[in-house]
Structures are given as C-alpha cells and as structure tokens.
Amino acid sequence: MKWLQFFTPAKSMDTAQTKAFLSTHPSEEATILDVRQPAEYERSHIPGAVLIPLPELSDRLGELDPDKPTLVYCAVGGRSRIAAQMLAGEDFKKVINVSGGIKSWESEIAVGPQDLGVELFSGKEEPAEVLKVAYSLEQGLREFYLTLGRQTTNKKVKNLFAKLAEIELNHQKSIFQAYLDISGEKNKISQEDFQAMVEVKSLEGGLSTEQYLELFSPDLEVETDVISLAMSIEAQALDLYQRVTLRIDNPDSRQIVQKIANEEKAHLESLGKLLDTLKGTD
C-alpha cells in the first residue's frame, strides 16, 4: 500500500467537463468507473460505466487498464475521490474524479444491473453473429417506435416516431451491409431473407417495451417527452454495447460492437440537440 496516495489529490472534472471529454473520446479509449454499490448502479449510471464498488476496488485493480484514462464517479464525489487517489497511487496513467457524482450528472443515464442485456451475447460470437444480434435489437426498437406512433393522436409526435423508426431502419441497413461485407454473401441473400433468419430480441438496451414505458412513464402526446424517452432508450443501448465490448473475445467482433456503440453515441447527441431546440420553443 502506498500511503502517499491518500495525500496526493487526483485531478477532478465537473459533469460538463466530463461530458465534453467523453464526446471526444471513443468508448474504447477510456474507462468510466462507477464505485458505488450494485443497487445504486442499478437505479442509474452513466452509459458504459464499469461497476467496481469502492470496498472491492483494491482487489479488482487487474480488471482495469491502467494505460487508459479512467473517469471515476460515485453519488456525490466522496467515494470517487478516494478511489481516484487509490488508482493514481497504483500508477494508473490518467485518473479523473467526476466531481458532483451521478447527482449532478445532467446527461443521459442508463438503468439496470451491470449484466442487463448482455445475455443476448455469449462473448464467443464471430463477427457475423454479432451483427445478427445487433440487427435484431435495432429491429425491436424500430417496431417499438412504430407501435407508439400508432398510439398517439398528436400529428407532430406521430411524425417524430416515424423519423425515429426511419433512423433505426438506416441502422439496420448499415448492419446488413457490414454483414454482407464480412460474410461474402453479397449475391446470395437479400435484406428480407437476412431479416427472416434474425430473431427479434429484447428492445435495444435489454429492457422490454412494457418495462421501458413503466420505467419512464412518457406522455406520448408531448414531443419533448417522446425525445426524452428515445434518449433514455438510446443511452441504454449505448450502455449495453459498451459493456458487451468488454466481454467479447474475438477482436473483429469487438471492433464491430465498438463501431455500433459510437454510432449510438452520435444518435444520442443528435437527439439531445433536437430536445434543446424544442425546449427552446416552450
């Protein structure tokens, strides 16, 4: 134990600085470390965060990459400050304490235990199998948006759901093209045939349609509520893909999931800008 670590403050960032940092670093280039307890993590966490409770940290340092920037957070910043100092004392190259913790986090958060949704991936998939699972998740979300679009009477909201469904359709086309590129089946299978062989899994992110509606209770007649719901789901999907990358052995498969995660991140940012625009007109 290097006692000096407790007297050497780690660098801190507020939530705005952390958000800016994450927006310029792909998910595979940094570690987001949550040092709270599992029940706290399950209620809400930053998408992609790895959970190692503070009492377990010293015994689980080997699970972390000391060469990657590590952003540490807790509820309000106390536990994460200690954890950041511990990591700095263990020669982690760049450790940042997220001051204010999850309570001051104004970005998107995900919910659920650390293994939520990852059962959809065994961790041993070849690239083609990863793409099939990803395609099924996108299909599930597209059908979810189409279903909700039929339930609302607000024309603007109907159009918004249609736009969200179209985005997921474009994601599916991108995934299908990647499947053709790696499988060499460009002249053997159509997208319709590919879709028929793909089982539609849980919604993106690992929760069912009913669970999402119960969890977020959106007003389906209000545009801002709908976008907030979409952002919550996309944050959940981003969280799932980022956690899955830690469990996949095949480097090509891992690279595919990382690419999908970065696309989800970009989609999430565009939804945030749209929400800012609508809130500015309230």
Automatic annotation (TrEMBL):
UniProt cross-references to CDD domains, sorted A to Z? Ferritin_like_AB, RHOD
* Keyword line: Transferase
What GO molecular functions are on record for this protein? metal ion binding; oxidoreductase activity; thiosulfate-cyanide sulfurtransferase activity
Question: Keyword Transferase, does the record have it?
Answer: yes
**Taxonomy of the source species:** Bacteria, Pseudomonadati, Thermodesulfobacteriota, Desulfobacteria, Desulfobacterales
Keyword Zinc-finger listed = no
This protein is called what? Sulfurtransferase
- Record the organism: Desulfobacter hydrogenophilus
Domain Rhodanese, by residue range, is 26-110
Q: What residue intervals traverse the membrane? A: none
What SMART domains does the record tag this protein with?
A: RHOD
